[in-house]
Amino acid sequence: MDVAFKTQLLPNNKQRTYFAKASGISRFTWNWALAEWDRQYTMHKNGNGDRPSGMALKRQFNALKKSEFPWVYEVTKYASQQPFIALQRAFSDWMKDLKSSKPQHLKKRRPRFKKKGKATDTFYVGGDQVKVDGRRVKLPNQGWVRLAEPIKYGGHINNMTISRQADKWFVSFSMKVEVCSLPSKSQARCGVDLGIKSLATISQGDIREWKSPKPLQEALRKLARYQRRLMKKVKGSAGYRKLKTRIARLHKRIADIRANTLHQLSCYLSTHFSEVVIEDLNVRGMMANGKLARHIADVGLYEFRRQMTYKMDWRGGVLTVADRWYPSSKLCSGCGSRKPDLTLADRTYHCEACGHKECRDFNASKNLEKFSTARSAGIYAAGDDGSALAA
Ligand SMILES: [Zn+2]
Questions:
Q1: Which terminus of the chain has a smaller tally of CB atoms within 10 A, N or C?
Q2: How far is the CA of 44 from the centre of ligand 1 (A)?
Q3: Separation of 338 CA from ligand 1 center, angstroms?
Q4: Is the domain of 199 the same as that of 174?
């Protein structure tokens, strides 16, 4: 089983310079490969030469590098090798998504050029060049670099990716671990309701509310501000385009922080519960609070479900996805009656039938926990939009 472990690096100045240089070479190689790909593809369409491929481009680059790009030898060979594999994969993913039925905004985009200062500084190192000892990692020709925390898992290191966020450097290890070495869990089921303000509400266990991290909240507030400002700008103007770019970058940042937090959350859930019930991705369509909130919630849910699927799998647990018709937020978790007119603004669920009063999200998480029972008890049926029960 492969797991990822990400932590901060504490490099000295010389190592920082090396990281920046290796990232630069990685970016250069990617851009070279993409430009060649485009050129060769155009030629191929006009009847000259083969369709481009990552492997062929890598061979062409290697034949040139000694005379044309000798500085690539100053850093790990992977900085100028991995981009070809990554580009090939990016093209394959893009083409696969073109044909898929995924929502447009979740589809991979065509590989693009990486601009210095805009694209993330990052490079890859293959496992054969990585050595780890407690709280430090050894890089080829660079000696030991300190880690902010020791690596959690023991096992073979497949590879690592070093990347920069603002002025900090991080390393993400991909490792092979034995499934049985993972911590065991209690035997319980829980329902998890995902939201924007609090990331998740959990129906069982010690942690009932998983708050969104501060940086995420700040980024979301900033995004809303930018979005308001964008509406006042003239479409297509320089200011408009500039703001658009900043918004795109902020989206990326939000996605990154969210993915990180979701990893902590999915780790907690998969180690503490044998069954976790979450809601279907499509449910969010009804919760749409403007296009923006929807986009963010979708990406979060998509990523959360992806992580939960493989983590529950590793640990022998079950992930249940309530179907899209299950009205988890509209049912009373006390008596099971339904409130069809509940709006997003109602933060508290107040049941008129039994007087039950509860925080809306917590009520929803409890209903998710009861999903299987509710379904077999016929409290709702798939395809039922609630209108029959509204009376
Ligand atoms: Zn009730």
A1: C
A2: 67
A3: 8
A4: no
User: Could you tell me the distance, in angstroms and rounded to a whole number, from the CA of residue 277 to the centre of ligand 1?
Assistant: 21
- Domain range spanning residue 273? 185-391
Task: Look at residues 262, 283, 391, 298 and name the one whose alpha carbon lies nearest to residue 344.
Answer: 283
Q: Distance, CA 352 to ligand 1 centroid (Å)?
A: 7
Centroid of ligand 1 to alpha carbon of 354 (angstroms) = 4
Note down pLDDT in tens along the chain; length 391 residues. Answer: 677 888 899 999 999 999 999 999 999 999 999 999 999 999 999 999 999 999 999 999 999 999 999 999 999 999 999 999 999 999 999 999 888 877 777 788 999 999 988 888 999 999 999 988 888 999 877 889 999 888 877 778 999 999 998 888 999 999 887 654 444 455 689 999 887 667 789 998 888 888 877 787 888 889 889 989 998 999 889 999 899 888 888 888 887 788 788 888 999 899 889 899 998 766 444 444 555 555 556 667 778 888 999 899 888 889 999 987 888 888 999 888 888 777 767 788 989 889 899 998 899 999 999 998 877 777 666 555 544 343 2
Strand partners, 286: none
Instruction: State the distance from the centre of ligand 1 to the C-alpha of 118, rounded, in angstroms.
Output: 53
CA of 320 to the centre of ligand 1 (A): 24
Q: Are residues 142 and 233 in the same domain?
A: no
Residue 29: which residues within 8 A CB-CB, separation 6 or more? 61, 72, 79, 80, 81, 83, 84
E-state strands within 106-197: 122-126, 131-133, 136-139, 143-147, 156-165, 168-176, 189-194
* 164 shares its domain with 191: no
Q: Do 153 and 263 belong together in one domain?
A: no
Number of domains in the chain: 2
| CA–centroid distance, residue 350 to ligand 1 (Å) | 8
Give me ligand 1 centre to Cα 332, in Å.
5
Q: Ligand 1 centroid to 334 CA: how many Å?
A: 5
Q: Compute the distance from residue 337 Cα to the ligand 1 centre, in Å.
A: 6
- 24 Cα: distance to centroid of ligand 1 (angstroms): 60
Q: How far is CA 152 from CA 1, 93, 100, 155, 169, in A?
A: 15, 31, 37, 10, 19
Q: Output the pTM of the full model.
A: 0.56
The domain boundary, picked from 180, 201, 225, lies at 180
